[in-house]
Design a protein that fits this description.
The chain has 86 residues and is α/β, with parallel strands linked by helices. It contains 2 helices and 5 strands; from the N terminus they run H-E-E-E-H-E-E. The termini are far apart.
Length: 86
């Protein structure tokens, strides 16, 4: 059984700290990715949604970028706004 701890509601700054941590983690995954074509993908995180933006050279790289960050903690949904440019 996995036990989770709820965040205290008396700490209004906590969600923004989590948002920053998630965005930093996701951006670091892209920076260190072996695929150079997705190293410049930008991430923002808001209320459980990780938003990807930038340009990639193929649909395959768009999907690869999405899969790379799929298991980042606290990400409930991915909004993949990457543009495929040739």
């Amino acid at each position: 059984m996995i036990q989770t701890t709820a965040f205290p509601s008396c700490s209004p700054e906590l969600p923004s700290v989590i948002s920053l941590d998630v965005a930093v983690k996701a951006n670091e995954l892209f920076r260190t990715c072996p695929y150079s074509s997705i190293r410049n993908v930008q991430c923002r995180f808001h209320e459980g949604v990780l938003i990807l933006s930038g340009e990639v050279p193929s649909f395959h790289m768009k999907q690869t970028a999405q899969e790379l960050i799929r298991h980042v903690l606290h990400v409930e949904q991915i909004d993949n706004r990457l543009t495929v440019v040739r």
